[in-house]
Amino acid sequence: MNQNVADKLFQTAVMTILTIVALLMLFPFYYVFVVSFTSPVEYLRKGLVLLPSEWTLTSYKYLLANNVFVKAAGVSTFLAVVGTVLSLIVTSAGAYTLSRKRLHGRRMLLILILLTTLFNPGIVPPYLVVRELGLMNSIWSLIIPVLTSGWYVILMRGFFESIPDELEEAGKIDGASDIGVFTRIILPLSLPSLAAFGLFYAVAYWNTFFSAILYINKADLRPLQVVLQMLLIDSSSSSSGEIANQMSSEIAIPTDTLKMAAVVISTVPILLVYPFLQKHFAKGVMVGSIKG
User: What is the CATH number of the domain that holds 277?
Assistant: First the structure.
């Protein structure tokens, strides 16, 4: 009896502590969300708003009507869509080729690909490659250098190896070429893997930041994360002043409400993708990691 009471007290204490910690971690997200929907007048009057008396879309309407923010959102959307599609094509094609046992030199290629996951060349070599290819101030400089990942190729190769060879042989008997087998048989069976790695690529492209700072100097080609960073940093800096002035010169909207609305807009699109890919996500990653 005493042991049961002690166990219940311990579980209650643990659950209470974890609940408090969870609430403390969720509060910043809640505050960002609330302030983004707060009336500018109310925010200026109160300073700290936990529950607005008036919910408004003023900050969102202003951001979505601002050319700087809209162009940045368009760049990030292009990176996430086009970059993800191209990355999946290259990664799946490379992984499928390496999964075929008849490929000569397959082991050496796998070793070379594995080395790319173990050693990081740093910043200078990629920068020199992008510059010599003439990709500076080009949106393709944010896609081509990171078009594929050696680690993703190895994991997807493991997934392709789990597909029976008899399916490929049946396709060959029916007259399909290697490309036909890959596009008509292998890829339709690989939707869980494609969904999982597509999500990884989409998140990476949507959050493009450091490479954009290195390769992009044109304001029209800045992705959303760069504009968001310029908006969030201290307004005393020149870059933040440029963005803030462009966004708040026409109407009097508190900068903080614009910041919070920008954070929500830059976060929600990726969050909305997860529920649609959740059923494929765990299966695609686990099959590739176990079989590989």
Answer: 1.10.3720.10
Counting as low any pLDDT under 50, the low residues of the chain are 234-240, 248-251, 288-292
Is position 32 within any domain? no
How do residues 179-229 score in pLDDT, each as one tens digit? 888 888 888 888 888 888 888 899 899 999 999 999 999 888 999 998 888
The total number of structural domains in the chain stands at 1
What end-to-end distance do the CA atoms of the chain give, in Å? 50
146 in a structural domain: yes
**CB-based burial, 236-263: b 16+ in 10 Å, e otherwise:** eeeebeebbebbbeeeebbebbbbbbbb
User: Do 197 and 210 touch, CB atoms closer than 8 A?
Assistant: no
45 contacts 56 by C-beta, under 8 angstroms:
no
Would residue 179 count as lying in a domain? Answer: yes
Residue with tokens 């008396």: 53
Q: Is 68 helix (H, G, I), strand (E, B) or coil?
A: helix
Instruction: Identify the domain containing residue 170 by its residue range.
Output: 76-291
Is residue 62, in this structure, part of any structural domain at all? no
Tell me the CA distances in angstroms from 176 to 160, 173, 184, 196, one per residue in order: 18, 7, 9, 28
User: Structure tokens of 269?
Assistant: 């699109």
What is the Cα–Cα distance from 37 to 31, expressed in whole angstroms? 10
- What amino acid is encoded at 90 in this protein? V
The gap from C-alpha 189 to its chain's centroid, in whole angstroms, comes to: 24
